[in-house]
Design goal:
It contains 26 helices and 31 strands. The chain starts with 5 loop residues before the first helix and ends with a helix. It is elongated. The structure holds one RNA strand of 77 nucleotides.
Length: 887
Amino acid sequence: DFTASEPKWLKIWETSQTGTPPAADSDKSPVFSMVIPPPNITGSLHMGHALDNVLPDYFVRHALMTGKHTLRVPGTDHAGIATQFVVEKNLKTKGIDRNSLSRQEFEVILKDWAQTTKSDILNQLVGLGCLFDFTRTRFTMDEMCSSAVFEAFSSLYKEGLIYKGPRIITWCTRCGSALSDLELEWEEKTGSLWHISYPIIGGDSIIVATTRPETMLGDSAVAVHPEDDRYKNLIGKKVTLPLVGREIPIIADYRVDKEFGTGAVKVTPAHDQLDWAIGQDHDLPLYQVIGENGRMTDQVPNRYFDATTSLARTQVVKDLEAQGLLIKEEKHKNSVGVCYRCSNIVEPLVSNQWFLRIAPLRDAALKAFERGEPRFYPENWGQIYYKWLSGLKDWCLSRQIIWGHRIPIWYCPGMTSTPPDAPSRINDTITGCPPICSQKKPISCPTCGKSGDFVQDTDVLDTWFSSGLWPMSVFGWPAKTVDFERFYPTSLMVTGYDILYLWVARMVMFGLHFTGKVPFKNVYLHGLIRDNKGRKMSKSLGNVVDPRGIQKEMGTDVLRFAMLQGAHPGRDMIASPDAFTGAKNFVTKVWNASRFIKLECEKAGSTPRSSLTHPSDFWIASSINATIAYMDEQMRELESANALRRLYDSFWGDFCDWYLEIAKLRLAQGPRDAVLGNLTALLERYLKLLQPAVPFVTHEIYENLKSLFHADRPLAACAWPEPLGVSTAQQETAAAWWATFCGIVTEIRTLRNDLGFAPKDTCNVSLSGIDDGTMKDAYLIEGLTHCKIVTDGVYGLAIRRPVLSGKAEVALLIDSGRDLSKEKQKLSLELTSTAGAIGRIQMNLANTAFTERAPKDILQKEIDRLAGLEKKRAKLADYLKQLDGVV
RNA sequence: GGGCACAUAGCUCAGCUGGUUAGAGCGACCGCCUUACACGCGGUAGGUCAGAGGUUCAAAUCCUCUUGUGCCCACCA
């Protein structure tokens, strides 16, 4: 029921501006700033988004507690193609065809969609309990971000880094737009490899192999490897292109693979990347035979005109066969590119598009990486990033869709050119006045002075263009704002490794180019969320876990803790329903333990002071100190999972299972104040350590106990705990006490279980080989094991067990009639394994290589161990003999 | 074709700058509704650390190879 308080805390964090840095001049604390990976406005948030936000929030909350001023900027991404695709689909269900709408009408619908979806997403982000500064919420198409986009485009344009021209690009015929190389996915398909005979003028023929026979209609050459002996003598001859009749040359190019197919390849510069490159170098003519609609153009013989590519393929094959030119058809596996959003098969074709010359940006990023910026977690992703950057080519910036930042280029009405809206983009060359780069419609042409109806380019920018500017644009760049000065570059970027290239690399390049600084010092790449079968989550598989479902059912803390506990940098994470069980149990445990302490303190009616007196106090203090040290170490490596596992163990395994149980007995026994004081003080520390992971439940507890804690602020604003003052000597004493105490208790419990004592039965135990200090705690041992420690008396049998390599001994005193077979078996098993261990050590010690070369401390350790084990073995043998006599 | 990662208990994963008899959670088994908690407590079982070599006094940990799995990149026409 503590989950009911979530809305209350969300409100308190918001109104108290927890996590929002104070005004710039008020304090000089170091700043920890982050920007959100802006979710697409395509729907609701899924598990990946939850991870994108919970993980950074853990670091933000931790940073806040360690005295930093934190800022995390929230926002959303307009997500060009993705959003338009979803909205089009949505319209379709209402029976509306997007093509029946004007650009303006469609824009209105898109804006409406953006408005509602945006607020849905932001609401969901709020619910995750992340410390965002919502007064700084941004959207990639809002005014601030748009002006950054314009500034970036125009300055790149002025530098000559942006150009427009016909190039081979990837085209999605469904979306009707160009795509960048990164927006492709590859699917393995089994198709055919056709061998086609091209007749050589002057006799003979050459056989080419192709997977796409329909593109032969656009061939402008046949290429062979210059050192291929089979074809050397044919280079320079001409062939007649079947079905078309065109004469095309046989050329030589090193990029041809002699081993593949027949070693001769048809060259279709307009519809293949490699052929384009060969065509460029050999100055081959272009024949655009496939149009942007995915059908054959008028560049082909009439009988194929307007056929779909697959229809044309069938027809071409049939016709070749009829002419006896089809030599063979063999099965062939190859990959086909599909659109990453709509999964439609894409066509490589030549189109007039806007490009960004990447070389200078890329080289700056490479140099930055060489001097260690940014630093990657996990480290190995840095190499992957570097390698990818090294081979990076120009970026196709333009998209032929509606939803996005329109290219800020205007055409002078006086210019003589194909208008930018022309149906085919191939010959869209501009003559006359150069285009004008301007955010608003120009009044007059700076070249010819004419005024009139300037036409804006119809294309919009790739959505990743604005995403790439995100860490700058959210702070108001290009304006020299206070925020920009203060928060840029950001401290840490957390995002999935799947968008390393699409996003992270581009942010780095833009950041360096425009500000000279890498936009973040560190990059944490998290893995993907998978289902319990290790599959990626997808709607079509129906295996999507909705974070809201978990939140509603078990609480946001459970969602957060489960994710944080499973998140290792760069590693995928399994999110099956029972992955949340452990987290749920833990959160409940925290709540219950706190409730116990609260109840006890209320009984006392005072606010007791903490003071460490009992060995158990020093022991638990050491446990917490070690936990804090370990957590700090792991946090430096951004290993939330390891940090939290340790905290989990300390809290549950040490504090709840042992310290609290001991405390109960101490409370019953004697002076309560110190015990209660310690319980509260320790709980407070745990709450602080837990807060970044499970803020709701810890805040609620802290609030409930605030009079005990003397709390004057929300938990999130408290300082990260320093280690408790425990001297080394105290720690060592406590550790020794703990080893004996825990050993005795555990052995007694085990004996009870093995001998079949009912939990309610009290049994008699005698202890030997222990010091007076431990004897003082006899009542604790009795309480924890439900036994009575006796020093005299007559019993039938003493079932004995060694503790700690035989230094101490417990004996369970029984009358008779118990089944001893289990105990015998256990003792002999332990005897065997002890003997084995002894044997190994003896062998080791007899080995001069070991005694000479091993470090002294290791050697001494082994000698001590051997002594202990031998003592233990003697006892075990003795016990066993005794038992054997009983039968 | 190139590269990266992973392979540890039935499942999900820690441990890996080499050094006790390899750990946790979930699941399984036995016993307990003990007044914070059955979302719990106590106990038990379960692993030749993928395989083969090598380095070393000593390898889950370092090196090499093999096998299997996942992912990324690539102009296999």
